[in-house]
Structure formats: C-alpha cells, structure tokens
C-alpha cells in the first residue's frame, strides 16, 4: 500500500512537472514571436537606411529616403504587429479560410469565390498607376522581408496563432492588398441583404410588409409574387437561427456585414483656433485585434498619419501637412439581385435577353482542413455571378427553377480604387482630393475633407445606370431576362454632388445621402443619427477640438427621444400609485424613470436598459402575428416603422391588431403589454429594484478574436469584454448582437476615432479599440481599450522630433550587403 502511494505521488509530481514544462515551452515559443522594436535588420528591397520610430503606444513613424522605401517599411511594420490578421484577411478574400479553420468556414470561402474577389483583384493590378503598382510591390516586399526574418531567426512563426494553424505562411503579393480592399468593399455594402429582406416582407405580408423598410416619399414596390408567380413565402428551416457571431467574423470582414461612420468638419471661420477641424470614426465589427492600425509615413509629398488597415498600404482616414480626410460608407444602391430562369431540362442554360443562353462556368477546388477537398462549379450570367440559394437567405425567395445573379460595382477587374486612395494621401487640398477620388469604384464612400481654405464632402464610388423602366428601381430582386431591368454601365458619382465650399462652413455625414443625391440609393442609413450629429455641429457657432471630441462621443439616443413620447403618450402615470411589488407599480416606476430621462445611453443608468428592452418587445409584438418566424430574424430596430404605426401613417396602426385574437387591440394596449413583458424579463435577470439596473450589465463590448475567441480557456486571454455606453442609434455607435440570451451585446462600433486639428496639427488625436499589436502576450494588445471605452485619445503628431523624443523603440532597416 505504501509503495502504491509513493508511485501515485511520483506520478502526480511528474505530471505537474510535465505540465509546467509544456506551459513554459509554449510560453517560450509564443513570446519568441514578439518583435524587437529596437532591432536592426539587413533586408533586400530598400535603397537606403529606413527608421521605424515606435511611440509609447506602439505607433510606427516611418522615415526613409524614398516613397518606395517608406511603403516597404509600412509593410514590414504591419507584418511585425498583425501578420496573422493580414494572412486571415487575405484568406478571406481568396476564399481559403477552410484550409485553416475547417469545414465551418466553407460557406464563407464559397461566397468569396463566387463573388470573384481575388480574381478581380488580380485583374485590377495593371489598371493602377505605375507609382501605385510600385508602392504595392514595395509594401509586399516589406511584408515578405519580415516573413524571412521570422524564418531566419526562428521567431515563433510570427504569431502564436500559427502554431495552432500549421499552414505555411505564403509570401505577400501586390494583388493581395487589392483583394483585401475588395473584401472591404463587399463588407461595407448591405444592398443585397436589403433586397432579400424586402422580397421576404412582400411574400410574408403582401399588403403592409414594406412598412418596415420603406423610405418616406418612395413609390410603393410591386408585389414580389407578382413579379415571380412561383415565389412563395418560405419560413426559415427549423433550428436555423442567426449564424454564430464569431463564425461570421472568421475572416475579420464578411460580405454584406455592413459598416457605418461619422464624418464631420468645420472650416477655419467656425473654429476657436482659426484652423479647420475634422472628425471621423469608421464603425465596423469589434474584433481583437481591431481592424484598424495607427501609422505615420513620411512621403515625398510630406508626412501622412492616421488609420490604416493591415494589408492595405494607405492611410484611409487621417491627415497630411495640408489636408485632412475621413471616410463614411455611402449607402448608394451599388448592388442589384437578378432572378434568372434556368431552362427546363437543361441546367446549363438560362433565359437571357435574347433567348436561352449558356452559363459561363469554371471549376475551382476548395481545400478543407480535416476533410476531403471539394470542387465547386462557378456560374455567371450576363448580369453577374450566380449566388447559390444557401447564401444570404436566398433560398427563402427563389422560385423553383430559378437562380440568383448579382450585379455589383465591385465585381469588375478594372478597379482603380487603390490608385484613388494612395492619391488621396498625396493630395494637399480639397480640389486635388476630389479629383483623385473620381477614380474610386468600390467601396462607395462619402469622403469628408478639410484644408486651410475650407471644408467639403465628396461622394466617391461607381454609380450604376438603371433604366427608368426598371421594375423595382433596384430596391428588390427583378427578372434578369428583361432588358428594362439591366444595368446600362457605371459612372463616377455625379460631380455636382460634391459640396466643396458650404456656405455654413460645416459638413456632416453618417452614411446618409449628400444633398441632391436622391435616387442613388434606397437605404440611406439612420436619419435620426444624422439629424442628431447635424444638431451637435450646427448648434455651436464656434468649435474646438474638445467640442468635436464631445460630438464624436455623444451617447444621446435621438430615437429614444422621438419614440418614447409617442409610444407612451397614453401610458404616463397620473393617478394614484399601485401597491408596491405589483406589476402595475413596477410599470409606473419604469415610466417615471423614462419620463425624466434625457435619452443618454449611459452604461451607468437603468433607463437605457428599460427603453431598449421595451422597444424590442414592442416591435416583436407588432410584427409577430403577420410575419411569423421571419420576426425572429429582424434583429434591428426599425424606428420609422414604429413611428408610422403610432401615428397611423397610411393606416399603419393596423399592425397593432393581433390577427389571431377576437378583440381588436389598440396600439396603447400593445405598448403596455410590451413594457410589462420587458420588465418581467429584466426583473428575472436583475431583481425587482429598477434603480439598481445598469445598461452596462448587458451592453458590453465584446472584441472577439476570430481564430481563438471560441476556444475554452484561451478565449479569456484573447477576447476583450467591457461595459460600454451608447447604442445603435447614437452618434457614438455601439451596435447590438440582436439575438440570443443577450441581444444587447455590443458587437459593432467605432474601432477607430480621429479628430484632426489643422490649426495646431500636433494637437490632433486618434485611438483604436484594442491596441496596435495582434499578439495576445504583447502589452500593446489591449493597452488602448480602456482609453477607447472612456472616449479618450492619444496624440497624433507629424513632428519628427516629437516622435523621436517619445520613442519607445527604433527599428533600423538597412539594405542587405550595406
């Protein structure tokens, strides 16, 4: 017995020591991939020594003797900090995620291949200006130089994730950067999803379904079933809920995911310091590391500093010595979905404009980790690539014997958007910037501009020409065989939409339309948020950097201010209080809180939680009986719809009557029932004391690591979770997950914020949502997350002396053999 005990002790001690040894070994190899910011490297591809000066926040300031050398060093700096992210973004654009993630990533790969993101990127390379091709080549060589250093110096494969996904790290190519830009363009537009939703609403509720999404003043849409008599409402498959959010972000960006931003500026005459101000905050899915990376590069035209996306050699939002710019995704209608009829008895032919026509086909093989490769057949029609029914809910609207094809401005191989973006960095005034932006194809953007003489905004991106007789005006899928529905070419956004010298000296955009641009789109974003931003910038005669920071971080919900008086008009408590502990008293207490609330979506208050839960329950009650299972997929709030219903616009109050019940319910009754249901749910979560509830208890920002975020144990290291203020409709956007146990989880937001002061350039500021490094063991992995949450910033400067004075490390690059 004693001998057995001794052996058990020895075995236990041995297992402990083995575990410690394995953990130590894993830790050693993981930290080997942390870059040495004070290193000196001999590299091929540069003509003279280059310095990468790192500030205390790990922001690289790159100094070289030629633009080519500077772009080389930017590629190397991106790779030092974000190599795994870059390779994942490239794989997402190439349709090769399943090679590392396995079968779960196959749908994303399939869609990327069918959209032709990488194929069109390669075809666009030679369309760029020669100096842009040289910049892309230099950037690629910089990335590859760091990959060579990893291989030569045994630097832990460049990032810890590569140990879990043991694929070779392929060298970077210039087309890879163009492909990531294509992926970005596919991710920012949501027009395809909107068309499918309008079709589903038309099938589910033919009489009033468009009330949810119609813009004011738009003509009614034809019935989808009238366009396609074989179309029938198809409920989602049982158990097929919304896709897991982490799986959606497997490639950091996903087609049709959507994006937003605020861009606003004030001319020198409207500022206290006598110089123009510009603010910008592109809003994407929150990931760890974030999508954005701060950088400064010193070009021959001068210094440029701001936000970059690893893999793309351009400052997308930032400033140089004479110009500041910011980007806002423009929701122009840049996609059209066509329903194509397949010839009965011959699946290789479809009905074209001149009769039955052969599909253009090609075959590609998808490699899958842990499974056999799959070969897919890619088909195209005259209108664009065929998108299978398994994607983007297309199966719910496709009639039997038909397929869907997509026309998209980004689906072409002669795209000079990279030339436009690199040209923007070199432009020194608004006119030069507007000129180079004429080259933009996709993504479509509203670009806010500011220089010493004034401010302006330009709509950049290709615009499709639709015939005046288009059956749905591009708002809903249309028959692809009719010439009246087909695009008649593309053109740059109309020059007359540029607002380069507004009389007010103020410009502001949230993704909504520029003045006079009606007809270019049918989903112009949130007018409530646009009006709130416009109020913030117009209400002050004189602005400062601090007033712009305050506006950028504004958390007042204009939707709450608009809807609560309307929805609760007949519910506000005026009589005797009900007995404590009763549902009636809890309702009275909730209404009393909301009646005195200013709409601030502060994480420390209970009112935002009550309001958000009430509106969610209310919208569900209004549509559930008419839309059935489709109601489960309406994960966003439609404030214009609720406004129409409670104002009875066009008879919209009919939504308040529940069809399955005998009595006719009023909107007041539905509002009361929804509030009671919301309070019951929140009470079960947080107890009966409303005053102790907090919006931040449920509204927490979750920055998820796309590769490791779902791995038990590791997820606690790589994911970043923190309570946040704001909401979907606030200027400081903080979008919701929309489904599951916690639908108010904050999953989208301003992953980059910048405020550029041209009066005192060194007082400009910026921030990202996580940190510069993508390495979970780096202190720069999350060192900006707390600042970002609190609405704070770090200083951005173009002064080389300041950069060197605050240097936390200087990387020296010298030509190989020097």
Automatic annotation (TrEMBL):
Names of the cofactor(s): Ca(2+)
GO BP terms in the entry: antibiotic biosynthetic process
UniProt entry keywords in alphabetical sequence: Calcium, Hydrolase, Membrane, Metal-binding, Transmembrane, Transmembrane helix, Zymogen
Transmembrane segments: 7-30
Record's keyword annotation contains Oxidoreductase: no
One Pfam family in the UniProt entry: Penicil_amidase
Manner of cofactor binding, per the entry note: Binds 1 Ca(2+) ion per dimer.
UniProt entry tagged with the keyword Transmembrane: yes
EC number: 3.5.1.11
Taxonomy, superkingdom: Bacteria
Alphabetical list of CDD domains matching this protein: Ntn_PGA_like
GO molecular function terms noted in the UniProt entry: metal ion binding; penicillin amidase activity
Binding site for Ca(2+): 195, 333, 336
Family: Belongs to the peptidase S45 family.
Name of this protein: Penicillin amidase
């Amino acid at each position: 017995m004693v001998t057995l005990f001794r052996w058990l002790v020895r075995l236990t001690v041995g297992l402990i020591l083995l575990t410690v040894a394995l953990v130590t070994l894993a830790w050693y190899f993981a930290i080997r991939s942390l870059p040495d910011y004070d290193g000196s490297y001999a590299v091929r591809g540069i003509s003279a020594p280059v310095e990468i000066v790192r500030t205390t926040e790990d922001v690289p300031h790159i100094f070289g003797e030629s633009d080519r050398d500077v772009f080389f060093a930017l590629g190397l700096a991106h790779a030092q900090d974000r190599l795994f992210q870059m390779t994942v973004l490239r794989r997402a654009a190439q349709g090769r995620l399943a090679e590392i993630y396995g079968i779960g990533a196959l749908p994303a790969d399939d869609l990327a291949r069918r959209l032709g993101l990488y194929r069109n990127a390669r075809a666009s390379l030679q369309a760029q200006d020669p100096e842009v091709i040289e910049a892309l080549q230099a950037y690629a060589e910089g990335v590859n130089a760091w990959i060579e250093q990893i291989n030569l110096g045994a630097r832990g494969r460049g990032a810890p994730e590569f140990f879990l996904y043991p694929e070779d790290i392929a060298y970077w190519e210039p087309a890879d950067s163009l492909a990531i830009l294509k992926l970005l363009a596919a991710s920012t537009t949501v027009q395809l999803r909107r068309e499918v939703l309008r079709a589903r609403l038309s099938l589910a509720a033919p009489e009033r379904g468009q009330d949810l999404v119609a813009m004011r003043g738009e003509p009614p849409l034809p019935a989808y079933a009238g366009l396609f008599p074989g179309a029938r409402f198809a409920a989602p498959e049982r158990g097929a809920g919304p896709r897991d959010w982490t799986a959606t972000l497997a490639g950091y960006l996903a087609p049709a995911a959507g994006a937003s931003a605020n861009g606003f500026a004030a001319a020198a005459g409207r500022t206290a310091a006598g110089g123009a101000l510009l603010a910008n905050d592109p809003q994407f899915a929150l990931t760890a590391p974030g999508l954005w990376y701060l950088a400064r590069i010193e070009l021959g035209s001068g210094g440029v500093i701001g936000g970059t996306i690893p893999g793309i050699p351009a400052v997308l939002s930032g400033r140089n010595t004479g110009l500041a710019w910011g980007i806002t995704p423009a929701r122009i209608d840049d996609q059209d979905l066509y329903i194509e009829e397949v010839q009965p008895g011959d699946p290789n032919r479809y009905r074209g404009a001149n009769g039955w026509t052969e599909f253009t086909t090609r075959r590609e093989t998808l490699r899958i980790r842990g499974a056999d490769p799959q070969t897919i057949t890619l088909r195209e029609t005259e209108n664009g690539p065929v998108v299978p029914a398994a994607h983007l809910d297309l199966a719910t609207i496709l009639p039997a014997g038909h397929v869907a094809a997509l026309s998209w401005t980004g689906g072409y191989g002669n795209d000079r958007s990279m030339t436009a973006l690199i040209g923007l960095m070199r432009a020194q005034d608004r006119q030069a910037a507007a000129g180079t932006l004429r080259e933009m194809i996709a993504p479509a953007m509203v670009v806010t501009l500011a220089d010493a003489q004034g401010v302006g905004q330009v709509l950049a991106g290709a615009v499709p020409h639709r015939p005046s007789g288009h059956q749905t005006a591009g708002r809903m899928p249309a028959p692809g065989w009719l010439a009246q529905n087909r695009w008649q070419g593309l053109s740059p956004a109309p020059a007359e939409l540029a607002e380069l010298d507004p009389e007010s000296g103020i410009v502001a955009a949230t993704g909504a339309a520029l003045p006079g641009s009606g007809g270019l789109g049918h989903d112009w974003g949130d007018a409530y948020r646009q009006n709130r931003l416009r109020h913030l910038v117009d209400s002050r005669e004189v602005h400062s950097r601090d007033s712009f920071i305050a506006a950028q971080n504004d958390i007042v919900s204009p939707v709450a201010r608009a809807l609560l008086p309307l929805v609760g008009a007949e519910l506000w408590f005026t009589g005797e209080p009900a007995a404590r502990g009763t549902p009636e008293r809890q309702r009275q207490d909730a209404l009393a809180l909301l009646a005195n609330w200013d709409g601030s979506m502060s994480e420390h208050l209970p009112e935002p939680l009550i309001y958000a839960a009430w509106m969610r329950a209310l919208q569900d009650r209004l549509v559930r009986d008419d839309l059935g299972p489709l109601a489960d997929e309406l994960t966003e709030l439609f404030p214009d719809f609720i406004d129409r219903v409670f104002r009875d616009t066009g008879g919209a109050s009919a939504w308040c009557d529940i069809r399955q019940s005998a009595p006719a319910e009023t909107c007041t009754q539905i509002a009361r029932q929804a509030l009671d249901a919301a309070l019951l749910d929140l009470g079960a979560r947080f107890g009966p004391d409303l005053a102790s509830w907090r919006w931040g208890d449920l509204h927490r920002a979750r920055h998820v690591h796309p590769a490791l975020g779902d791995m038990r144990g590791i997820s606690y290291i790589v994911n970043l979770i923190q309570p946040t203020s704001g909401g979907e409709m606030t200027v400081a956007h903080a979008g919701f997950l929309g489904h599951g146990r916690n639908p108010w989880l904050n999953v989208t937001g301003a992953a980059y914020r910048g405020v550029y002061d041209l009066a005192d350039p060194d007082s400009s500021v910026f921030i990202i949502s996580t940190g510069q490094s993508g390495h979970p063991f780096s202190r720069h992995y999350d060192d900006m997350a707390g600042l970002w949450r609190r609405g704070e910033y770090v200083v951005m400067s173009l002064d080389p002396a300041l950069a060197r004075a605050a240097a936390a490390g200087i990387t020296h690059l010298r030509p190989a053999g020097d």
